[in-house]
Amino acid sequence: MDFAYDERTRDVCTRTRTFLDEHVLPAEPVLDAQVAATPDEWGPRPVVRELQEIARAQGLWNLFLPGPRGAGLTNLQYAPVAELLGRSPRLGPVATNCAAPDTGNAELLAEFGTPEQQERWLDPLLAAQTRSAFCMTEPGTASSDATQIATRIRRDGDHLVVTGRKWWSTGAMNPDATLLVVMGATDPEAPRHRQQSIVLVPRDTPGVRVVRPLTVLGYDDRDHGGHAEIAFEDVRVPASALLGGEGDGFAIAQARLGPGRIHHCMRALGMAERALDLVRERAASRSPFGRPLAEQGVVREWAAESRIQLEALRLLVLKTAWLMDTVGNRAAMTEIQAIKIAVPRAVQQIVDRAIQVFGAAGLSEDQPLAAMYAAARSLRIADGPDEVHLSSLGKAELRPRPT
């Protein structure tokens, strides 16, 4: 088997790494200072716009999106790029206009949007002129299973009326998030996977009410728009705001989540590699008990276990990306579920070890490790908790197979 990246992948990775080393990583303390100077603001700070201009000029823009509107990379080609961007989770993705939730929403608009919807919403997203939020999760239901969503979308003449409550709508506290992509039930009596639809709701529509921001283990993620609870109180939009057809919501959401999980997993692996870089520096410079941490047996074991996990999981994610490119998302579902379970769990463990190496400093804001831990931990719940995917994957694994 040939595990080498093709020429285009190598080229984009080289340019992305240079961009990170020369511009993104040095900008991290600048972002911290700008957030501290504007504590009441939600959304990108000036340094983000500066980095975006550099990335656009260098052709490192919309790398996540295949086809003529994006960079034209396949899932397999983009995967290692996403890993590099994950080394700076707060700046790498947004600097290249590859940050969630806009990536998933842009993919939906590119695949299912009408020309009018694409002109109104997709083009500004791809130009970083606006932001968006995906409104699926609900406080009152186990809404990682879309068939349990309680938000209603009912037709009233040539309008659709949305009523319900969403939360964990990432990015929605950002005033630039002018588009809310909302999933709701249009026909509760339809077959289980044909009950849902997705509608495009402008943020300024009467009846849309941002209830409050939410925190992730104490982090408000203010610099990229946070996470909001939103009430939809008889929100009326034209019927033309429907994305795809009525009853297509479940299938559309699944189409969004497949590539999104590749992106999340590769960024998470990049985050873990960054954590290991920090451990390497710490282990060489810190000498408790008369000798460097790098000579302590337990630290060596942690480093070895982390390297084994990263190498194995990277190959699994790349295999998943290759399957998605060659046989499609549905045929790659086993692998998509596997990486959704395995990668965040391993990355959480790797970052936890790194925190332990740093001791009290690892828990502080002086290092990015605590924020990394919060991000990795949240991924074990986002897009469905581990237990849901384990159950589904186990069920598939235990089916009788043809001999």
TrEMBL record:
Residues in Acyl-CoA dehydrogenase/oxidase N-terminal domain copies: 10-127
- UniProtKB keywords: FAD, Flavoprotein, Oxidoreductase
Which cofactors, if any, are listed as required? FAD
Do the record's keywords include Flavoprotein?
A: yes
Protein origin, superkingdom:
Bacteria
Please list the residue ranges annotated as the Acyl-CoA oxidase/dehydrogenase middle domain: 133-235
Quaternary context: Homodimer.
**Protein name (database record):** Acyl-CoA dehydrogenase family protein
- Species source reads Cellulomonas xiejunii
